Amino acid sequence: MKTIVILTLIGFLNSCSQAPGELDLALSTSSSSENCYSLKGSHLSTASDLSYITLPSGFDLTGFNSTGVTFSNINISNTKGLSVQMLNNANSTLRDIILPAGFDMTGFNASGKKLINIDLSNTTNLNPTSFNGATELENVTLPPNYNLTGLVTTGMVLEDMDFSNTSALTIQMLNDATLSGDIKLPDGFDVTGLDLTGAIISTDFTSTVGLTIGILDNATYFGGKIPAGLDISSLDYANAETGTLDLPNQKYMGVDFSQTTGINFDIYMALARCTVRWIGMTTTRITSSCNTLPPLDVSAENFSGVSLYNMNLKSLVNFNGGHIQQSNEGLRNVVVPDGLDFTGYTGKEYIENVDLSNAINFTSTMFNNTNDLNNNTFPVMDFSGVNIWSTRWKNANLKNVTGLTAAQIHTPYVHPLVYPDGFDISGVDFSKTGSKADGVDFTNTTGMVVSQIENIISIPALPGIIFPAVDVSTLDTTGKTVWRHDFSNTINFDVSMINAALSWIDSPIPDGTDLTGLNRPDMGSSNFSNGVNLPATEINKLAITHIPAGSDFSLYDPMTAESGTYKNVFGSTLYSEIPIFPVAQVNTFSKIDGLTLPSGYNLASFDPSGMSLVRKLNAKEATNFPISALDKGVDFKEFTPPDGLDISSWNSTGKTITGWDLSQVKGLNVNHFKNASNITGIKVPSDFDFTGVDFNSKSLYGANFANLVKTSCD
Fold this sequence. Notes:
Among the domains are: about 1-30, no CATH class; about 275-405; about 410-510, no CATH class. The chain has 13 helices and 33 strands. It has a seven-stranded parallel beta sheet. A three-stranded parallel beta sheet has the order 16-18-19. The chain is flat.
């Protein structure tokens, strides 16, 4: 019996040193256990912002006073000691917080708060009345089969809320709130009496009952889903679109009405109005705002007085050229039905920004009788009869036409076009005043000659001009502004052509171009990374990523370099084609932004005093970093010091410690944080002693303490 008593007592003593929920069955007489962190909840109370902070597993929040602290974007699922009072006292917005599984929400009070992107599905004792008085619930995940009885939403914004797995949701709850975004409702939910006045929603109503088009008509905007078979015969078409022809203002946007009933001509025309945007000389049109409509036979309809402008008419049946002729101006920014038959069309003001690839019976006579034919993709047609100036059919995609001639193209002057495959362009006169070839890819044409290229490059162009495989050995660029012209396919290109140009801006060159002798006062945004033999004298005129691999960087000087900075790292990838400079040359840089130093790099004479900024300097494997470099009046941001650097003597007063990885330094103490002006995004050594730390109301935004190791709880 005595033995049993003694063992029981020992077990009791051991259990006293364990954190709640932990059990250690080892028989030990030790009075302490390695199960606590030197960082305490009370220490966090001295910070002003804990957003995006990372805490170690098992961290005890006991003692944390959240009053006035920004407490968002934080995963505390693996912590302990959290209380609802901490949530209640935190700043008015609780956002992106991950709570411990099974967390007891008894006493939680969201009054006056915004709750955004919070998953409460694994919590317990969550009372719906806890939400009463909240100003906003946005994407708050509720527990399964959650009973909403008692929820009062008066004055509340409900945005992107998922009520699909709840019970006791009432129409009153929805009507009392301001609804926004995608409100998910329970299957079979009866929406009779739902008042969407002023709502801007994208709710999926397909599994609900009682929906009428009248309910949706009250919304300011609806972009959701509707049940199949919905009768839309009473839709308020006069208010379905209230903008202008140029700028439609749709109540219904991107809604699939294809399975509805009751559509008529007036309703179709109202719901068809949308914004159709043209993607330069392609068959692509941006129509994301357009509704999908059911088929409607318009063979008996009269389109007189109708403006066919910014519309999706794709599902119209028996729509033809006669209807276009009846309309006010013709077609502008319209998605037309496949196989549109132009029979009956004789000519209007516009056939503009329309993909007519699949149209039939569109003739050159119709073409000639239309005033504005810009930005169209034309169908298979004989172009030989076209006799109107090309100024009336700018930016045309002519890939499908036959009979196109040079005279048609340059009368009165050349506009951007997509040419038929194999078109002989040799006769096109690009020298005519006003000619331009913005965005044209000539690689599918034949016959281009050097004189045409010389005429084209005489005019600054928009991106996308691509020359075909032309022998340019005689090309004269003297005095030309070469701007966004792609020579990468040309033959016998020579560096002298770059030198002779008045300017050379963002114009690609053929792979392997020998840059020996390159000598320009500027390079603009040119990319010569695919060339070879770049002279060292030109190194400072190019962005660091536009320099060929293996170039001579001995004269590199960011004070004059186009990039204005030295960067050998992009994301987490070392840009190995750029050499590592001697420290004396690094000292001349105007700033550092993304420099990773190799193992053993000697920083003994490093002096950043002439730099405006040092950012993303990774000196982890460097040696002899002078602590005085941190006192040169230059901000170090996202800095990784050398492993083992002793910073005990460094005075951090007034300094920024933003994004520093201090996990491998020595001599770091709490005063470094207390005296610094900014300590966001920090990492500390795993054994850092936080005893007595005072963050002095500073933000700990982005701090990562995940590497901390447990110490004695004594």
